Amino acid sequence: MSFKAIQISKEEQGEQSVDVIQLTDADLMEGDVTVDVEATTVNYKDGLAITGRSPVVRHWPMVPGIDFAGVVAESSHAGFAKGDAVILNGWGVGETHWGGYAERARVKGDWLIKRPNGISAKQAMGIGTAGYTAMLCVMALERHGITPGDGPILVTGANGGVGSVAISVLGKLGYEVIASTGRPEEADFLKSLGASEIIDRAELSEKGRPLGKERWAGAVDAVGSHTLANAIAQTKYGGAVAACGLAQGFDLPATVMPFILRGIALLGVDSVMAPKALREEAWSRLAKDLDMGKLDALTTEIGFDDLIETANDIVEGKVRGRVVAMV
């Protein structure tokens, strides 16, 4: 039986090509669980992989897609049986191991978690790595002791996948949220998710002062570079910034002043290799703390054949919220 997949190939001259092809089970990479993929999504990293704008892919040829939700078709892993509903995020899938842009995937069972009750396959991919990362950021701020009473939380890249889910979760938990965006026309949308105040990303995206006015108790940053530096410089005494992305850049043009004069904490958040217990906690919290109605409002559904075009759009900053492809 053959099935459809998107494959990225590299020519001898170094040129990259992206094609829709047919595969069989015999073509799949090694693993102890085979999954019938029901849904996948488009993350910024998927966009980078398909466009070739960043060296995301490290094994050729590659089936991209760092996320998928589906049902177990075959398993020799003790933790999973045929018929189990599962989710995969990260673990190098879509980078070094074939991913979710196919109707079937074979992976290591240790990379999977069971899909929580109350979350459909579509909703799981509406959340995806971006939303799961947002939850990890919120949990990191909570572990640092940041509460709604401490003051507002800044969310940068507010219209993106991490930002939009972070706003929704923080708003439901009772935090005041300041959303930073380069698309001011989306203010009403961001406020509908739970943002109290909207600021232009230009306030944060250029070189700023080493230490600024104290404006927020914490931040969720998916942007990096000057934006992260300015978020840190304007965090209140004893606050914390959860950093998880580099949409503006991977540099951090900051000073030690906020750390040694205000006791600020910079909390690095990794979603790719996070241990299973932390993943399960994050997905359990998402089932409880994310308003599924708001998730539906920020999710756009596309077809499998629209994945390549949408991957290009997300790198161009043309995608709002989350995109789900039903496979």
How would you characterize the overall build of this protein?
The structure is a single chain. The chain has 327 residues and is an alpha/beta fold. It folds into 2 domains: 2-115 and 292-326, Alpha-Beta Complex (Quinone Oxidoreductase, Chain A, domain 1); 129-268, NAD(P)-binding Rossmann-like Domain (Rossmann fold, 3-Layer(aba) Sandwich). The protein has helices at 44-51, 121-143, 161-172, 187-193, 202-205, 225-233, 257-262, 276-289, 292-297, 307-315; strands spanning 2-10, 16-24, 33-41, 67-75, 85-89, 104-107, 112-114, 153-155, 177-181, 197-200, 216-221, 235-243, 265-268, 299-303, 322-326. Helix 1 crosses helix 10 (307-315) and helix 2 (121-143) crosses helix 3 (161-172). The longest helix has 23 residues, at 121-143. 50% of the residues are buried. The model has no long low-confidence stretch (mean pLDDT 96).
SSE topology sketch:
Elements: E1 2-10, E2 16-24, E3 33-41, H1 44-51, E4 67-75, E5 85-89, E6 104-107, E7 112-114, H2 121-143, E8 153-155, H3 161-172, E9 177-181, H4 187-193, E10 197-200, H5 202-205, E11 216-221, H6 225-233, E12 235-243, H7 257-262, E13 265-268, H8 276-289, H9 292-297, E14 299-303, H10 307-315, E15 322-326
Parallel strand pairs: 8-9, 8-11, 9-10, 11-12, 12-13, 14-15
Antiparallel strand pairs: 1-2, 3-4, 3-6, 3-15, 4-5, 5-7
